[in-house]
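A favour, since you know our structure tokens better than I do. Go ahead and set the record down below.
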Amino acid sequence: MSLEEDRNAMRMVQDALRRRVEGQPVDLSDIEETDPGFAEEIRTWLVTMEADLVATQQIDLKVDTDLEHAHISADGLPVDETIVSDSLGQLKRYRLIQQLGSGAMDIVYLAHDLMLSRYIIIKVPRIDDANYNYEVVRFRFRREAQAIAQLDHPGICRLHDFGEVGGLPYLTMTYIKGKPLSHFLATKQFQVRQAVVLVGRIAKALRHAHLQGVLHRDLKPANILINQEGKPIVT
């Protein structure tokens, strides 16, 4: 299949998914006549993506419910000592919702930007009393923020802000509604055509970063999110 044919195929899949999401009928009769196997692939893709969209919508509904029913302290942040540290509690602009994940060096939270009324991600360093070095961590976060700030690509998660509060450096970034690539790899197997398109998009995002002199040193399926449109976003 040529590159142009591959692009046309992806446009067909995206159009079919859009129509399904909007509640419109999806007609694959033309594709059936020329490529029955591809039509069946589209049906399988639609079923999978529709299930993922429903799951994502349920998560969003739960987030909204949590926000609505959260116990709010005097400073406007949810009262949950397992989520809100003393330092992050000083960020009046953001309402922390829950911890999304953590690694060897960082912790990531979902938060609500009260000023712009949107969900964002807040990333902070994991503080280990035995090894935590404020100056080293501060330098690392500032360098990461400066690097991400140079990137402007739809396949790369965007940086909103870098700051410090209570001696704790933090980054705020776009909240991507979706699931990591590792989830899809564990629960289903991609068709060859889907995998080729996916890897191609990831490669283009990384090429953009490389042209800006930025190297991703922890690229793995868990750090690539698949958004609601089925497109990969490198985090």
The longest strand covers residues 94-102. The chain has a mean pLDDT of 76.
